[in-house]
Amino acid sequence: MIYWEQMNARPTPTGPAKLLHVHWPLVILIFCVCGAGFLMLYSVAGGNMDTWARPQMMRFGLGVVVMLIVAMIHIDFWRRISVLTYIGGLALLVAVEFMGEVGMGAQRWIDIGPLRLQPSEVMKVALVMVIAQYYAWLPRDKVSNPFWVALPLLMTAIPVFLVLRQPDLGTAILMIAGAGVVMFLAGVSWWYFGTAIAVVSGTVWAVFESRGQSWQLLNDYQYRRIDIFLDPSMDPLGAGYHITQAKIALGAGGLSGRGFMQGTQSRLDFLPEKHTDFIFTSLAEQFGFLGGLTLLGLYTAIIMFCLLSAFSNRDRFGALMTGGLTATFFFFFAVNMAMVMGLLPVVGVPLPLVSYGGSAMLVLLGAFGLIQSAHIHRPRGADA
Amino acid sequence: MARGDKGGPTITRRGLVLMGVQLALVGTLGWRMRHLQVEEAERYRLLAEENRINIRLLPPARGLIYDRAGNPIAVNRQNYRIVIVREGARDPEEVLRRLSRLIEISPDRRERVLRDIHARPAFVPVTVAEHLDWESFARVAANAPALPGVLTEVGLSRHYPADDIFAHIVGYVGPVSDYDLSRIEDPDPLLQIPDFQIGKNGVEKRAEAELRGAAGNSRIEVNASGRVIRELDRVEGRSGQDLQLTIDSGLQDYTLRRMEGESAATVVMDISTGEIVSMASAPSFDPNSFVFGISTGEWNALNQNEYRPLYNKAVSGLYPPGSTFKMVVALAALEDGVIGPGDTVFCGGSIEIGNRRAYCWRRGGHGWMDMRDSLKNSCDVYYYDVAQRVGIDKISAMANRLGIGVRHDLPLPAVRAGNMPDRDWKMRVHGESWLIGDTVNSGIGQGFMLASPLELCVMTARIASGNAVTPKLIRSVDGLPSAMDPGEPIGLNPNALDAVRGGMFAVSNDRRGTAYRARIAAPGMAMAGKTGTSQVRRITEAERRTGVFRNEDLPWNRRDHALFVAFAPFDAPRYAIATIVEHGGGGSTAAAPIAQDVLIRALYGPEPPIEAWPSALHQTIRERRRLGQDSASVQRSRA
Lengths: 384, 639
Hints:
Helices cover 69% and strands 3% of the residues of chain A. With 384 residues, chain A is mainly α. A 3-stranded antiparallel β-sheet of chain A has the order 1-2-3. The radius of gyration of chain B is 36 Å and the shape is elongated. Chain B is built from 26 helices and 21 strands. Chain B has 2 domains: 54-245, Penicillin-binding protein 2a (Domain 2) (Alpha-Beta Complex), CATH 3.90.1310.10; 249-285 and 311-477 and 484-638, Beta-lactamase. Classes of the chains: A mainly alpha (384), B alpha+beta (639).
């Protein structure tokens, strides 16, 4: 760890010098992933820039500026406004309940002038920030105290409840994962996690075990829905169709793929949501196993760089926030990939930085800006 | 501002656990990816090849056509057919060989299918057989696994339950030809469907836009052999609109049967609304034989028949109106004031015009004629004289006012306007100036004058009502009634109209009237008519001297056309009729009896009392009824 020792020997940078301390390798990785996304959007539009690729690139440009601005602002500022962000996010979530527009069958959007804001996207970041702030504030000896554990659980439960009402299961899972990872990193006792896992699995077991018994917990139609959710092939015209087609596209790609713009499955409209949730299948069909693995490698490298940055950060808020956001990002792509590969039921999570969608792109780049800010403004040896 | 412990990185240990879990999950994803893309690649690649999405157009059900009482005239029937797709068949010849063991495929048909199948794109279905009975259809369906690329389909095809009765009105549908496609701008994608039928004639053609409807489509997923795996989504089309015609099937049927054996046409119109209740052209043909493509032999037989069955004589046939035109001349003269109803003209059998002589049909002459007598006797000399006094331009103008020489807007492709010549017309068309002899000829509806039976019927209706009655054929579209109006008053002097109507009454009801034998005897139903006999040949001076040939002595196509127009009842006119029998001889003997029977049938319905006919005819009518010649064949064919 000599590299880190030397860096830490210097004082926290100020002014334009901060630019030199931006985690540039991370920025380059983000550019690579987004670049792959543009290629895919160009390809699934049948070689048309204007359908998806160009708007996505413009949002990316805006997002990079946002990321750098966020990165330049001191991490203390972000910590101070984290509670405010959380409350604002909650207010927006409540607002979509009343004035949200129905998009894709679920209430997720809010229109502010020309901007389409997805409050649940913002909330994913705000929740991680506020819980990291909570643990930065909370004395270490109280971390595992039941009362002080209940508070962050409540802070998580409120937005999760609102998001589930929309209904947006994917985002709810990402929120729980992000908040849970922050609590885990903050040192909340293993017992709590063990209990949580036990309760969840116990409930699931009970629900399934009760089926057909005198004490059946759910209605029959609800069981059928769960069956279809778990095994989409039972509903070949609905969810099952998507997943079958996605697997066919992946398999058709083979080891090295069919070549750029040669994906018959995506081109022939077999794939649903080919520019959003299922974009990974297009990539895997065109560039094969090697292409898919490369993207997975890029994502993993991003995760590793961020985690390493968190490990080396002695600022508790910065470290926890970086860890939480990284975990959110990880679950983002992992859930999406597992979903299109048929490992998880389809829950509706896009592929981060690649899928088409302005709101997600902006928020993700903003989140990376926060990670950068934590990285740039981390306490150096001189401050200690 | 509590910052927690700053003694060193705060989360390293648990962070490493997290990192480990995440790497494990990434490993799982990579392993799964390898499983799908490397180990199972072959399987999925095959599945991918089998993925094909076809978009199929769903042809809409064509609108139905009914008569005025709601009896079906044109309906859709299920059509079981078998199609073959080259893409799926791989070896079409072998598949056809197997198919021919199940159903009959003529060598002709086989040849055509093989030609079509190679000429068209691989995925386009080609019809092998259609109108199969259910048994053959089921046999093929059951053997589907052995017949790759063969699809069984159920479609709709047009059927005309009344066979030939409405052929000229309704027309027929047929498969879209390349010629049709070349003539239509912005073709409807429906027309690309193999064997899709569009209107080729009659109302079916002119009302194509209403009848066709709009295509739906279904997105279906098919596998490599073209078998439908599932329907992904479906947009229903809009079926065509139903049409109700003004025609009365029973009367139409009767009219056609009554003209059997003749080359003739009759139009019957409701005077108060202009609705055409019957419009028949004999002989007729069976439109059903056109729906599936007519055989060459049948086509030639229809085409070479000198009675021209394919031709709608009622609206397309143009004939010199002959003496039925005399009402027009009379009205023009009365309206112009050159003659009064009571003024007389002396008929001595002929009249000198320049250095030529124009003869009356009655060589001995009629003596002193007033307007009523001139119509009753159909005196030619009277009209030679009157026509000269009025002049051709006013006669033509009057003809147009009465509906002759104007194109009536009926939903039929073949409606033709007659020809009402005037000075300008002759100069324009023939480059010659109008001669007085032309006017004289026109006075008796000969020469350049031409009119269709429809126009003569409109003329009669207008004289009977004094209104500008316009003919109508569509009673309602999709249940929405068409506007029915008696027409604006035509603006003729009521006294002039009465004088002409009186003359027509005398034609039918005066003992010496030319159509007295063909009157309606029942009180209150009396008809008023006018006979016409129009020459199709020139009678030379030499023939005049030796005696004009009798029609019976001439070959059929040189004989005179027989015409008759009438309306009834005289006191409260309901129906106007025009009948022409091509080369039938005299109007009073060939055309008037047909019009008489049809009018009686129109006034009384299917079972007219025998008293409607004059007693001299009772024996004939009874005989006809005994032989069943009066029964309507519509009921018979529908039973």
